[in-house]
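Table S2 (continued). Query chain:
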Amino acid sequence: MLTFSGKNATWYRFLLKFRDLKDTSGILIGKGSRIVNGTVFGDGTRINGKITIKGRGDCTFGKYCALGDDIRIITSNHKVDDIILQYALLKRIGLEARVDERNNVTVGHNVWIGDRAIILPGVTIGNNAIIAAGAVVTKNVPDYAIMAGVPAKFIKFRFSEEEMKAQDQLQWWDWSLKEMKEKAHLLQR
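Corresponding output:
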């Protein structure tokens, strides 16, 4: 697990200006990524390109997610009922900027998010889901769902109900690499 908080976050952001960030649990975050405090990456999650995670909410990724290039995740929004929407102007005139209550983003285990997808505040993406390239996700995504489009719409489930139940019982993302190798026959169709 890799957490962006405190001094670690400052150091990680500095490194990402110059190179990919890798750790011993298999996490990879592409060079040029911009990531706010409160972001947590589960073991084995890989971002194959740059990602932007911004806003005032938290963002949590499960284990072994596969993310493409140029993905944007937004963890807070302006309050739409405020008269002035620009945070900088509010600050200049002595008012506090308010954000919408819907903010944190959660991504489950073994999720694939394609290039240039956008995930909006308050969204939860279930385990084993796929988000198509260019999709704009505005609502929660069920486990095993394939979502595509603007706004993202449900396309289909990846597997039959029986296969999904069987995979849910495995919870293979909690296995060690040794266990995954020993039980590899259970992990491929």
